[in-house]
Sequence to fold (366 residues):
Amino acid sequence: MVVWDEEGFQGRRHEFTAECPSVLELGFETVRSLKVLSGAWVGFEHAGFQGQQYVLERGEYPAWDAWSGNTAYPAERLTSFRPVACANHRDSRLTIFEQENFLGRKGELSDDYPSLQAMGWDGTEVGSFHVQSGAWVCSQFPGYRGFQYVLESDHHSGDYKHFREWGSHAHTFQVQSVRRIQQ
Amino acid sequence: MVVWDEEGFQGRRHEFTAECPSVLELGFETVRSLKVLSGAWVGFEHAGFQGQQYVLERGEYPAWDAWSGNTAYPAERLTSFRPVACANHRDSRLTIFEQENFLGRKGELSDDYPSLQAMGWDGTEVGSFHVQSGAWVCSQFPGYRGFQYVLESDHHSGDYKHFREWGSHAHTFQVQSVRRIQQ
Fold:
């Protein structure tokens, strides 16, 4: 992927092929535009892969509103990046649980769900996740809107037993849409 | 679907089972929270189904940031609504064309694509669309972000031959993600 320190693919430019724990070390104040040329990536608000998460799939992102979730308090900052290891789309599998620690009712997912309620899930929360294979992104609101949380079979052994494990920016169990990340 | 004139499902409440050309006629200044209890809907910025479009699938939307696209200039207004007629997910089919008026290279879609480039589409634009069946939403940026445009087989005979036909808020051919709308 390629990043620029100005909007519209202007200013200083840097190309990554592996993780970048901080663009500050490149002399960037923040990233203001980017293009993903291959693979899938996740960008983070803060250095060291902390803060809000933004899934970045192939394409062009000319300004912060192109990648930021539509949150009430958009973080106009993108500071660290790492690649995401996706499975073949057909082989991605995820289990969602009603309660934390893999308890309560569960659902098995192998497709994209812009609305978990429309697939029959009761309520607006998910208590815990187990990723059998692939990489997934779940979102606070239907239609993949709001805070995003990246879930990977390669991290935490695929186990996310409480919202505290979904990311440093997660403060509730609210999850209303889930999809596979596309390589 | 049910709408409220305050955030967090507070204030005056109104329930729709069919299209609503203007909530102003109900004495609402705007809609500030909503729940979709069944079906899929599209909400519009202005009365008479004009302005920005927001796909609303089953679930809870406690405030405007839950449905607004993550645009640089969010319209904090939601004034008219209509239901969307979806096909069975497996039967949804869409053709995308490189140029306006159904010309140039084309691609056949029957699945969700968070990144058209990742599926092999060249560039960040789509010139025209023909919806064979179902209802689709295409978005300006990858990962279903930015301006949304609803495309339906039941409208315009499924033909959208120029961005002017995608909606009154469309000003470019930029489309980087496309998915089926979920009933």
Notes: Chain A has no helices and 14 strands. The radius of gyration of chain A is 16 Å.
